[in-house]
Amino acid sequence: MRLVIAVVQDQDSQKLSDHLVERGFRATKLASTGGFLKAGNTTFLIGVDQTQVEDVMGVIRESCQAREQMLNPMNPLGNGVEPMVPYPVKVQVGGATVFVLDVETFAHF
Amino acid sequence: MRLVIAVVQDQDSQKLSDHLVERGFRATKLASTGGFLKAGNTTFLIGVDQTQVEDVMGVIRESCQAREQMLNPMNPLGNGVEPMVPYPVKVQVGGATVFVLDVETFAHF
Amino acid sequence: MRLVIAVVQDQDSQKLSDHLVERGFRATKLASTGGFLKAGNTTFLIGVDQTQVEDVMGVIRESCQAREQMLNPMNPLGNGVEPMVPYPVKVQVGGATVFVLDVETFAHF
Ligand code: NI
Ligand code: NI
Ligand code: NI
């Protein structure tokens, strides 16, 4: 048994949830923050058999691959104040940090 | 030293907290979601000596044992709309998923 | 690779975050509760190389060392009701509980 702990940007969290369910993996989700961008993220706890680690890693990789995206300037306050970034910029989104831990004992009651 | 990670339905969370305190175990609780029912749950982190793993597993089992319960139909919005389930149904509540991990180093400052 | 799980009083959480960033450690933070005082706390997940465990433990110790503090009585409701503790008392604040776990596999996508 292994415990997979995956920290995933909020942007990809729903996609990862859906893909895990599709593949029959059960996950527990915890709201978290941190990393360089201080953006919100989600920490997934996924208990899997040792033989499924590669599968679940594949699901995480395909759901959360880091990629570049154009960020359009917007003024979320709509108050006429100039946005801090007045032109579209390329930002990196997505990505996941994954720790796989050995589980000494597993139980379900 | 072992780290016990227990994911528990919110319904049993307070009972487990109380029983852990009664038995002298200290736990850290994190709000979490997930599992089949998407119901809210609580993730407990409990650091215990290797010799106490069986004890703490017993406390979790007795506090969170899965069981059946009659769910009465209710219309939570009180707006005259038919409830989705118009008759009492048996649902499974409770249950816990528990991972025991080996701790390489433990420290308290 | 090691996963350091540190449970830290909210009071010290920002200081620990800042010091970790200063030292180049990336952390994921989860809101948590529990321990004797039921006070809010923060659970940090910090992935580090085996050779950095001592360093990160030092950062946690210096940021979160338990210490005594005078707690002044205050009536937070401002409603004329007597505070429960009508004179300054010494309370222990700070402190951290830290678990270091071995990581079998680490990945970043
Ligand atoms: Ni898809
Ligand atoms: Ni009881
Ligand atoms: Ni400082």
UniProtKB/TrEMBL annotation, chains A, B, C:
Matches recorded under InterPro entries: CdAMP_rec, N-reg_PII-like_a/b, N-reg_PII/ATP_PRibTrfase_C
Superkingdom of the organism of origin: Bacteria
Any Pfam family: CdAMP_rec
Alphabetical UniProt keywords: Receptor
Gene3D superfamilies for the chain: 3.30.70.120
PANTHER family: CYCLIC DI-AMP RECEPTOR A
Entry protein name: Cyclic-di-AMP receptor
